[in-house]
Write a structure and sequence with these properties.
The chain is mostly helical and about 290 residues long. The chain contains 13 helices and 4 strands.
């Protein structure tokens, strides 16, 4: 039995070498672990490190809080472009409903009507409605409707602004001989008013006086005028519209040709000299159809 478990000289050397190798590996592992392992308090922040990190965090918070948010400026919802709709958070479907409504030459004159047409969500409407800016005559009309709804006074029949005489107009407080002549003269130059909003063009006519006129007068027989498609109009066509002179008409046509069509009234503000502040009156004469 003893012969079976005996080792010769070469085998004993091999076993001894293996034992020494294992011992060396264990020793090296122990040595390296104790030499390079950081002390137990290595990862504990010092007071100075905590101050530095707190300072960095405060700087980050200031940077985030001072980042400017998207600013919404007052705008007329009738002239929303597809890009403006995107920035406001409107969906493509909501904008398409608005565009289809406007393509029919219809106008949105209240927040409620905007919601009805676009079917926009209440949450988004609540966010953007405070920035709606309708023409002052629309706001005045809405206020007048509200007042009339709670008024018990008997309504007085209005007269036709297109047939009113100077004497008729003088009955309005604030309208004297000069203003009455200007109103009648301007009406004759136009060939008749299309809408009461055109009273805004009467020089010297104050807002309060204009509102007083509109309480007793309205355009009952508007001038017959077919709206001009700005994407088909030539220079001579545009000259039929008040506020547009030859040079401006030429610029509009050149702009349209360069851009291969005009898609929205907003684009007209890019044309030099275009009276965009009169867009509410110009829209009585202009329309935009598909440019293709």
């Amino acid at each position: 039995m003893s012969r079976n478990f005996s080792f010769n000289s070469l085998q004993r050397k091999g076993v001894l070498g293996f034992v020494l190798l294992i011992s060396g590996i264990l020793f090296l592992n122990y040595y390296l672990k104790n030499k390079f392992e950081p002390p137990s308090d290595f990862f504990i922040d010092s007071e100075e490190q905590i101050k530095i990190r707190n300072f960095i965090d405060s700087v980050k918070m200031v940077k985030v809080s001072s980042t400017p948010k998207n600013v919404i400026y007052p705008f007329n919802p009738n002239f929303i472009t597809d890009y403006r709709a995107y920035t406001l958070g409107m969906s493509t479907l909501e904008f398409d409903r608005l565009k289809e409504f406007r393509d029919q030459d219809k106008w949105i004159n209240s927040t409620e009507e905007f919601k009805q047409v676009t079917q926009i969500s209440d949450s988004l409407l609540k966010e953007i409605a405070p920035y709606f800016k309708f023409p002052d005559w629309v706001n005045q009309r809405e206020n007048r409707i509200k007042e009339e709804s709670i008024s018990v006074s008997v309504a007085i029949a209005k007269k036709d602004l297109n047939t009113a005489t100077e004497e008729d107009l003088k009955e309005i407080n604030g309208v004297g001989e000069v203003l009455s002549k200007r109103i009648v003269l301007y009406r004759n130059q136009l060939g008749g008013f299309i809408n009461e909003i055109q009273l805004k063009d009467i020089y010297g006519l104050k807002y309060e006086t204009r509102m007083a006129i509109m309480e007793k007068f309205e355009v009952q027989t508007p001038k017959d005028f077919k709206k001009i498609d700005i994407n088909k109009a030539e220079v001579m066509d545009l000259l039929e519209i008040p506020y547009i002179e030859y040079e401006l008409a030429r610029r509009i046509v050149n702009y349209r040709i360069t851009r291969e069509g005009i898609k929205s009234f907003d684009e007209l503000s890019e044309i030099q000299g275009f009276p965009f502040d009169r867009m509410d009156r110009l829209s009585l004469f202009l329309k935009i159809e598909n440019s293709h």
